Amino acid sequence: MSSKAIKTLGKFIKPGLFDKGTGALLPEAYKKFYKEWRLTEPTVVHYIPEEGRFKRDPVTGEVQRIQNHPIPLLFIKESNEQIWGGEQVIQGFQIRDWRRRRVPHFWWPHLKRSVVYSEVLNQHISVVVTNRTINLIHANYGFDHYVLKTPACDLKSLLPLTLKRKILQELQKGCPTYEDQPEKQKEIHNKYKQYLTAYTSEEIEWYGYSFTQACKKLEASIEAKNQPVPLKSVYRSELIEKLKEAKISASSEEVAVGNTSTWLKKINPFSKET
Amino acid sequence: MWKSLIRTITPLSKTTNCLLSAETSIQQQLRTTFILKRRINPPLSKKGGPPKKLRTRNYLYELVKDTNCDKQANIDLILTSYVDGLGNVGDRVSVKSYQAYDQLLLPGLAVYATPENLEKYKDVEVKDMKVYSSSTALGVMQVLSKITLSVVMNKDSPWTIQPWHISASFRKCCYMVPEYAISIPEKPIKGPNLDIEGKEFYITVTINKTEQFKVRCRIHHWSTNIRERLPYEEGFWKVPGELLFPEDEEIAKAQSQNK
Q1: What are the boundaries of each domain within chain A?
Q2: I need a labelling partner for A16 at 20 to 30 A (CA). Which of A244, B13, B83, B179 fits?
Q3: What is the dihedral sign for C-alpha B140, B146, B152, B153?
């Protein structure tokens, strides 16, 4: 028995997202994206982490370990339709005056409506952004570079992830939006094609879906594959086939009868000739 | 603790090919939004063990920095077309970042000064160079061609509009425009005449005897006697006025497009 098996002996392991239901059927490509999105630690935004392993107390000279406890963040559902650039809402307390009790406070990012321009899609998109998003776009020299370079855990919300998938799909097709200008098409494709190397085509297809969206997509594809055929159409086609066969055989019989039925006609009691 | 640190570092190192520059992300984190600090840190957890449960006092935060209040950083751009007051095609300019994003990058008047773009716009032919007589000339032109100047004239005694009337009207709005810089329309405008009340005409202002531009003026009648005064019209500047001379229509059209 392996050591892992001994450790888990007699323990009930709770089934995870990908162990039950439709989740178990999801392809490996989606699991890879999910890992990049949800199970990776994002870049630190709201606090300054201490560096090094140990620190010395300035007064007593006592040596202490350094441990960074990340500040818990709230994910806002509405941010899925916006691009916050890794910022989130912080819930906590403030002490505004030493004579007062602590006061609950929410630190919200400053949101503003602006426009982002995607060069690959050749589209201006009106979105709600933060100043950090614009700074990041500047630092990466453009929205496409920013979206393509940044891992899913930092993009966080579904809108930039969806845009990333669309941009990757567009790059895969070779930028069909610039079909009228072949030179520019080539230039833009060369500029961004380096990002395609990190993904296979299946990974691109499954990139940027939430878990429920991915399940729905899979279910829809399964349903499309196993479309039930109504029995009435089956029976109808069978009947038509049968009729066709019968007709052919009947006509052939008739022909046969017409040729060789001289003695049968004689037997027929209702025929006028007899 | 190390486990959590390794968790943060490993995904970044694994995805290096898709994260082309790892060091930029570390610089970026510091110029963001609210940066907070805990007042009371949670106790140290055991090496390799799970982190200690946070208590209410661990949710007490102090603001270290709000980067939205910081001074905007300048970014380097290369102009792809002529921009008033900035430069011509191929010029490398340094502009405030949000202003640059809204006014230059999104309309497509400039591109980022990346090494590739620097190479691309190294030798671009410069056409239609515009040189102004002073650095503030363009700003003055832009401001004055947008305003509607109220020329307030007497309702009782006769007058004909002279440049000094216009100069005085400018002075009322805190613009010092000398008389020799103003040229009024050739047709004399005489009054008092209540038919021309609220009608508009255009004058020409010359800056430093070089740049010429049109300023819209509107005539108002005013009397020293309170009884004689015309009733005050609420928001009269929002109501578009009629033209005094119908031949000014082209100028009016051109100005409304520039707005």
Answers
A1: 17-43+67-222
A2: B13
A3: positive
Those of residues 229-248 in A touching chain B at CB distance below 8 A are: none
A149 touches chain B (CB under 8 A): yes
* DSSP annotation string for B172-237: HTT----GGGEE--SS--EES-GGGTT-EEEEEEEETTTEEEEEEEEEEEE-SSTTTSPPPPTTTT
* Residue-level pLDDT, tens digit, chain A, 274 residues: 567 778 778 888 889 999 999 999 999 999 999 999 999 999 999 999 999 999 999 999 999 999 999 999 999 999 999 999 999 999 999 999 999 999 999 999 999 999 999 999 999 999 999 999 999 999 999 999 999 999 999 999 999 999 999 999 999 999 999 999 999 999 999 999 999 999 999 999 999 999 999 999 999 999 999 998 999 999 999 999 999 998 776 666 555 555 555 676 677 777 665 4
Residue B8: Cβ within 10 Å count? 16
Boundaries of every domain in chain B = 2-65, 74-120, 137-258
The interface predicted TM-score (ipTM) is 0.77
Å between A240 CA and nearest CA of chain B: 60
Measure B68 CA to nearest chain A CA, in Å.
Answer: 7
The reply to whether B137-258 shares the fold of B74-120 is no
- Cβ under 8 Å to A: B residues 30-89: 30-39, 41-42, 44-45, 51, 54, 56, 58-61, 64, 67-68, 73, 75
Q: Which residue of A has its CA nearest to B98?
A: A134
- Among all chains, which residue has been given the structure tokens 């040229």? B183
Contacts 24+ apart (CB under 8 A), B101-106: B101/A114, B101/A134, B101/A137, B101/A138, B102/A114, B104/B77, B104/B79, B105/A117, B105/B77, B106/A115, B106/A117, B106/A124
Q: Is the separation of the CB atoms in B229 and B222 below 8 Å? A: yes
A123 forms beta bridges with: A118
Pick the CATH number of B137-258 from 3.10.430.100, 3.40.50.300, 3.10.100.10, 3.40.190.10: 3.10.430.100
Which residues in chain B have their CB less than 8 angstroms from residue A148's CB? 18
Instruction: Output the CATH code of domain B74-120.
Output: 3.40.5.10
Nearest Cα neighbor of A70 from B8, B67, B31 is B8
pLDDT value for A250: 60
- State the amino acid at position B110 in one-letter form: A
